[in-house]
Amino acid sequence: MSTLAPGTTKQRRLTGKPALWAAAAGVAAGAAGIAAGELTAGLLSPLVSPVTALGGAVIDAVPPGVKDLAVQLFGTADKIVLVACIVGVAGILAALAGVLERRRNGWGLALAGLAGVAGLAAVVTRAQASPQAALAPIVAAVLTMVLLRNLVRRLATWAPSEEIPGREEAPLARRSFLNALAGTSLAAVVAGTVTTVLTRATAVASGFRGSMTLPEPATPLQTIPAGASLSVDGISPLVTPNADFYRIDTALTVPAIDPPAWKLRVTGMVEREVEIDFATLLAKPMTERHVTIACVSNNVGGDLIGNALWLGWPVRELLAMAGPKAGADMVLSTSNDGWTASTPLEALTDDRDALLAVGMNGEPLPLEHGFPVRMIVPGLYGFVSATKWLTELKVTRFSDDTAYWTPRGWSDHGPIKTQSRIDVPRSGRSVQSGKVQFGGVAWAQHRGINRVELRVNRGPWQQATLAGAISTDTWYQWQLGIDLTPGEYEVQVRATDSTGQPQTEDKAPVAPDGATGYHTINVKVG
Ligand SMILES: Nc1nc2c(c(=O)[nH]1)N[C@H]1C(S)=C(S)[C@@H](COP(=O)(O)O)O[C@H]1N2
Ligand SMILES: [Mo]
Question: Residue 22 C-alpha to ligand 1 middle, in angstroms?
């Protein structure tokens, strides 16, 4: 802050302001630097930019509890909130750099340099980073430093931080600073706009996706048996439309993969390494299967579950080409962004039709659901099986390799637990007395469900009507009308799988391997 001589009114008007102008200079320099860095990344390494790399590093570093909380608080908007936080923090740091630099030459530059080092570290440790990706944070930091130095120098001639006897505000110096500030801000806006237009790498992928036609399945189309779908108002549709399908992943920006450049490699404990490209995969005999996939983070009664018709080539066929060696018991699948899942080798080679999926409900995979290729494994939670943007299958052992979530408090195995959910009426709703229609879904993928029951106020279990399934790998709809007089009721559901094992009443949290307990709702009958 300036130490101003009393009585010089012109200078006194500047009190407090120079620091604000310095902060503004920092923000403008930082914004222009970061925008230039993002632009460099957009041109040289569209998959990894300093901002998304920092975000990715934050996602990988936060403890699972925080992540679950963020998902609960913000839902799928959690990623937007994270980017907003990064931008906010960058803004504060930039303002601080401006103020510091004005106080002492080099301090603000040092802060900008430190931020650049953090960005560089984040970028080079990303799985998708190519060597040229490192240029972006360097450009961002160097440009920020140059612009900051330039602005602060002009600010110093306009509003010197040391009192210079007899010196008054210099209108020319003032104009010079303000012009430079405006120019820097304009450059930031232009670079930012060009970046958003140019870095639509997703545009390339979506362009390809839009123009491609899915192959016909070689096996007969899987038809939905009559009676698998119940007509109960408000029940989850038997097949979940793509637009309503839950999305869970650690990807801050959806990996945009150009299918002609895509390859899937089979490595590790195999007789011979195998590589397959997209055109070759599409030419393989495709299988079509309805499979209900579920997230291990789904709370009892939650909606992180969906059923879709997947088109793909069985994983076991590709693995057979490579020839897994004796002793291997796991396949570590890796996605384009470095995320990994550990799947028992057995589940990928038995007859359950684990797929290298390219289609979802009759369309190419949507980008956010793994375009161009993902894994779908009936019976296993997504975190140990459903790798999106798939690029590598490493045949290995559970004792030798660890997947993304395992050191973060989750299990290395994840068979889906038997569960059931009441969709209607919604908990807390008021309904008319008389016959109240209850309806919902139950699932025990790959085992199948043979009974669903409801109980009111912990009374005797009453058997619901269970719809015929598409297969044991999908969820089942159920319904039951119960006569209820006015009052408040607690209603619970439980399912029994086809081995005769009822789901447990014991409550377990989602970590490490899936929630248990009865879905319980309260209904007001009037
Ligand atoms: N590349 C990648 N694949 C991933 C994940 C991820 O974070 N990254 N999350 C998994 C998890 S936890 C689940 S539940 C499913 C969700 O698939 P969906 O988003 O298509 O519903 O994807 C799986 N595949
Ligand atoms: Mo998940």
Answer: 45
Sign of CA dihedral 37, 404, 510, 331: positive
List pocket residues of ligand 1, CB cut-off 6 Å.
245-251, 295, 335, 337, 339, 369, 382-383, 386-389
Expressed in angstroms and rounded, the spacing between residue 386 Cα and the centre of ligand 2 is 9
Q: What is the pLDDT of residues 495-512, one digit of tens each?
A: 999 999 999 999 999 999
Q: Which domain holds residue 296?
A: 242-408
Residue 224 within a domain: no
What CATH number did the domain enclosing 396 receive?
3.90.420.10
For residue 294, give the ligand 1 atom closest to its CA.
14
Ligand 2 centroid – CA 293 distance (Å)? 9
Mutation choice for ligand 1 from 67, 76, 244, 248, CB with most ligand atoms inside 8 A:
248
Residue 289 CA, ligand 1 centroid: distance in Å: 19
User: How many whole angstroms from its chain centre is CA 320?
Assistant: 32
Q: Look up residue 48 and give its two tokens.
A: 């990894």
* Model pLDDT, residue 128: 77
Residue 226 lies in a domain: no
CATH number of the domain encompassing residue 509? 2.60.40.650
Cβ(363)–Cβ(214) below 8 Å: yes
The pLDDT of residue 309:
97
Query: Has this prediction a pTM greater than 0.90?
Result: no
Domain count, the chain: 3
How far apart CA 60 and CA 249 sit, in angstroms, is 11
Number of helices (H), then strands (E), belonging to the chain: the values are: 12, 19
